[in-house]
Amino acid sequence: MNITIKKKALLYDIENIAYVIADNGVAGHSPHRVFDICRKGNIDRVARILGLAYAKVQYVLSPLLEVPPMFRDFDFSVIPRNYRFRFKCGLPAEKILKIKETVHEYMVCMVLADWLGITMPAEAKVWEERAAVCLKELAGSSIISGVMTRQVPPI
C-alpha cells in the first residue's frame, strides 16, 4: 500500500496553526511575522523544511519501504502546491492510517519549529518536542511492531 501526504493539506495545517499561535502571541509581537509563514518569499523555506522532513521519514521508515528511499539532489522549493509525498510500503491497512497521520504531524511540527525558531524562539521548543515524539513513534514499536520488514541483500 502507499502512504500519500498532500502538500496542500500540510500547508493548510501549517497556516492554521501559525494563525492561532500569532493570534495568541506575546504582547507587542508582530503577529503577521508568524502567520505569513506560507506567503510568497517564505514558502520556499517551508518547502525546503518539508523536503528535509520527508527525507528523514524515508530514512526512519526505510526498513518498511518496498522501494528503497532515493536521496537525490531535489529542490523541494519548486514543487507545486498540489504535490504529494509518497511512501510505497508493504504494510497492513490497519497500520497505514496511524503512520500517515504521524508523518503528517511530524512534517507540520518540523516546519513550525523552524519558523517559530525565527519569529518566536520561545515557542519553537514545543514544536521541536512534538516532532521528536512523532519521529520516535515512527521509529518505535508502537506503529511497526509485528510488521515484516524488507530484507536488504548483503553487500
Seen as an oligomer or otherwise, the chain set is: single chain
Helix content: 55-70%
Supply the helix-strand structural class: mainly alpha
Which sequence of strands runs across the widest sheet? Answer: 1-2
Give the strand tally.
2
**Major β-sheet, in short?**
2 strands, antiparallel
Proportion of residues in extended strands: 5-15%
Describe the model.
With 155 residues, this protein is mainly alpha-helical. The chain has helices spanning 7-23, 32-35, 43-61, 93-119, 121-139, 141-144; strands spanning 2-6, 84-88. It has a two-stranded antiparallel ribbon. The radius of gyration is 17 Å and the shape is globular.
Q: Key terms for this structure?
A:
155 residues, mainly alpha, 2 strands, globular
Write the layout of secondary structure elements.
Blueprint: E1 2-6, H1 7-23, H2 32-35, H3 43-61, E2 84-88, H4 93-119, H5 121-139, H6 141-144
Antiparallel strand pairs: 1-2
Helix pairs in contact: 1-4, 3-4, 4-5
Outline:
This protein is mostly helical and 155 residues long.
